[in-house]
Amino acid sequence: MDLVFDVGNTETVIGWFQESELRGHWRVSTDSRRTADEYGMILVQLLTASGVGHNAVRAATIGSVVPAMTVVLRGACERYLDVGAVAVDARTPLPITLDVDEPMTVGADRIVNTLAALRMYAADTVVVDLGTATTFDCITRDGVFIGGVISPGVKTSSASLTERTAKLPRVDLVPPQRVIGRRTETCIQSGVFYGAVDAIDGTVHRIREEWGSDELLVVATGGLAELIGPHCRTVQKIEPYLTLYGLEFAREHLSRSTAGSGM
Predict the structure, then answer these.
(1) Does domain 2-87 bear CATH number 3.20.20.450?
(2) 2-87 and 97-246: identical CATH topology
(3) CA of 152: how far to CAs of 125, 136, 158, 161, 259, in Å?
(4) Does residue 109 have an active-site annotation?
(5) Is the confidence at residue 6, as pLDDT, over 70?
(6) What is the spatial distance between Cα 116 and Cα 42, in angstroms, rounded to a whole number?
(7) pTM for this structure?
(8) Sequence-ordered list of residues with C-beta below 8 angstroms from that of 157, at least 6 positions apart, any chain
(9) Active-site annotation holder among 2, 109, 129, 137
(10) CATH no. of 97-246
(11) What percent of the chain has pLDDT over 70?
(12) For residue 243, is pLDDT > 80?
């Protein structure tokens, strides 16, 4: 089995693959203050609870936007799973192109999203990744990342609103029954939720006009994809674990390249 880590600023999503199929996944807090031993024990417990022995792991691949977490997870994999973990970044030799002004600054999540879009869709694609930040990755049908948009995430915006105001309460992020709220809480829920939905649709419309692509596929991914995506008029596909698939595709490609070189 193969283990992949999608490390975000707030949460880390761990997935395990068997024969290129995603068989399981877990979501844990991203905390680089934790030690490799702590994350190692977490991995062993998760794998054991799922009926998969930790000794079955044969490879680990990390896509991280938190450099300190990469070091911690590598140590955890080496000590507790007895595998070396490969970290994907802009220097990794993948069959994609980063056609932007500063390719070395492109995050690992956007890199593997590009690879996943190439392998799974082979179409001009906008990947809307709903995490701590909401990112729009613009990817051509032949696997060229041409740039995109980064905006505050839905939960980030909501937290900022309530933290900076004295009387506005925190609310759960749920689809409101009505647009027009009749209490403070429902007003906030409507504003946060539909503000996010309309921001996505509006940004996609602007991307479509500027790109000029005749057929543009819009895919929602990330932790909030299944909550927000169905309410967006522009979103055509929802794949919450697109980044995990991209990491597995990266592992497969690197494995074939290494085997082909005779190493």
Answers:
(1) no
(2) yes
(3) 21, 12, 10, 12, 41
(4) yes
(5) yes
(6) 27
(7) 0.91
(8) 192, 195, 196
(9) 109
(10) 3.30.420.40
(11) 93
(12) yes
User: Residue 80 to residues 21, 33, 64, 76, 91: CA-CA distances in angstroms?
Assistant: 23, 18, 20, 6, 27
pLDDT at 114: 98
| Cα separation, 192 vs 169, whole angstroms | 13
For residue 166, what are its two tokens? 């004295």
What is the rounded CA–CA span in Å between residue 148 and residue 150?
A: 7
Q: Tell me the backbone φ, ψ of residue 188, rounded to 5 degrees.
A: -65, -45
Break the chain into its structural domains and give their ranges: 2-87, 97-246
